[in-house]
Amino acid sequence: MKRFKIGLFGIAASLAMTVAASAENWDMPMAYADSNFHSQNGKRFAEAVGVCTGGELTITVHAGGSLFKGNEIKRAVQTGQAKIGERLLSAHANENPLYGIDSVPFLATSYAASEDLWAAANQAFSEALDA
What we know:
Structural class: mainly alpha
Number of strands: 2
Strand order of the largest sheet: 1-2
Strand content: 5-15%
Radius of gyration: 15 Å
Largest sheet: 2 strands, parallel
Distance between the termini: 21 Å
Order of helices and strands: HEHEHH
């Protein structure tokens, strides 16, 4: 899953760089507390985007559900209320059961097992997300 998350950040950074023709500030809602590793990774991502765009795009992380609650983030991005957001894919397993594969108890109990699970599910994820 580590590669999957890094890959998503890479994709998001690429997208961010293509739309950064003029200086912009994006709000990034996150559900987790500021001290949580998800929020800390989001802040590192925002810093990297700032560096990679030469300051043309600034992402302000709003941790702890302070801008939108966790279950509201996807809709906020879909409707343009937020340009970018972070939400665990497994929270959307009601849309496609495959999205919850990494949250099945005891299926992957280590980082190595998580990487194996991602490798096994990668093609199916790609097809589901493409659809």
